Here is the input.
Amino acid sequence: MVKALKFLSYLMGVSIVLIGIYHLTLGQWSVPGAGPTTATIDSRERFYSAIFLGYGLAWIWAARQSPIPALAIRALAGIFLLGGIGRVLSLPVAGWPHWMQIAEAVIELLLPLLFFWLADADEKAASGDDARETPLTARRLPA
Here is the structure.
């Protein structure tokens, strides 16, 4: 579980940084199905993209800690979940978005649950309390 936490946290960070760079670079044109809008929307898109890029760097920072801090993982996953909840709140107000954003919403609502579950794996392993991870890792065959 520790390897999964490290890998997924790092992958999450790198993915978010790349998405942030993509949106920061393309502005309004990076939004699927949006087409040309206004300078205000383009400016806002690029601003939020820079913050999203920083959010990805926070994931990478957390993944590089030893042990990976469970509190940081839970906080970062909670922010991601909040984004998915924001998309759900948008449905009755604005209707269904582009299919790509529906897929993103599903990921934003489900992936945090995996991170909440894995969050303390590295801290447990570092403290020697990793025997509870699975029955297979708790039992060792004699050599």
